[in-house]
C-alpha cells in the first residue's frame, strides 16, 4: 500500500514524462537555429564593405578596392592574378601560401589584405624571373625539391626567409645557445621549415636544395 502523498509511477507515466521533457529541451535550440538562419540571411543580403587598398607587390604599387574580409592570399590570387601563391588549407596549417611581407615570411591566408595597407609584399613571381631564377629556385630545380609542385612556391619563399633569419642571428626552438649566432645546420633548417608541409614528401631533396644555397650540409 502507498503512503499518502506518494506518487505511483508506472512505466507508461515515466515514458510520458520523458517525452514531455525531451520536447521542452529540444524547442529552444530549434528556435535559436531559426533566429541564426534569419540573421545570417539578412547579413548575406547586406552589400559587402569595401575599402581602398594600396600595396606594393613585387616592386609595383597596386591600388585595389577590396572587401574588408578579403585575405591577402585572395587579394593576390583573385584581384592581382598572381596565382603562384597557393591556397592549401586556408587555415595557417600548411605554408603553401607563404609570401614575404616587409621582408618577413607570412602565411597570406591568415592576414587580411586591409591589414597590409602600404606594405611591401614579395611573392614567388617576384623572387626571380624565368631568365634569372633566384638561387633558391635554381637549387630546387637542380635537386628536384618537388613532385607535384603545389607546395613549392611556399617552400621557396619560406626557405629564403629562413636563411635570412639565420644570417640575422635569430635563434629557433632547437638553437642550443640562444646567445650564439645560429648556423644553417640540418636541424636548424628542418625546424624552421616545419611549417611548410609537402604532401608528396619531397623533404629530403628540399633539405639538399636549401643546404646548397646556405653552403652547409643537409
Ligand atoms: Fe595558408 Fe595553408 S593555405 S597555411
Ligand atoms: Fe607536392 Fe610538395 S611537391 S606537395
UniProtKB/TrEMBL annotation:
Identify the CDD domains for this entry. fer2
Please tell me whether the keyword Iron is annotated for this protein. yes
Output the Gene3D superfamilies linked to this UniProt entry. Answer: 3.10.20.30, [2Fe-2S]-binding domain
Q: Name one GO cellular component term.
A: periplasmic space
Give a yes or no for keyword DNA damage in this entry: no
Q: Note the InterPro entries from the entry.
A: 2Fe-2S-bd, 2Fe-2S-bd_dom_sf, 2Fe-2S_ferredoxin-like_sf, 2Fe-2S_ferredoxin-type, 2Fe2S_fd_BS, Aldehyde_Oxdr_Iron-Sulfur, Beta-grasp_dom_sf, TAT_signal
Q: Which Pfam families match?
A: Fer2, Fer2_2
Residues covered by the 2Fe-2S ferredoxin-type domain: 51-127
The molecular function GO annotations come to:
2 iron, 2 sulfur cluster binding; metal ion binding; oxidoreductase activity, acting on the aldehyde or oxo group of donors
Alphabetical keyword list: 2Fe-2S, Iron, Iron-sulfur, Metal-binding, Oxidoreductase
The protein, known as? Xanthine dehydrogenase YagT iron-sulfur-binding subunit
Q: Which organism is it from?
A: Caballeronia arationis
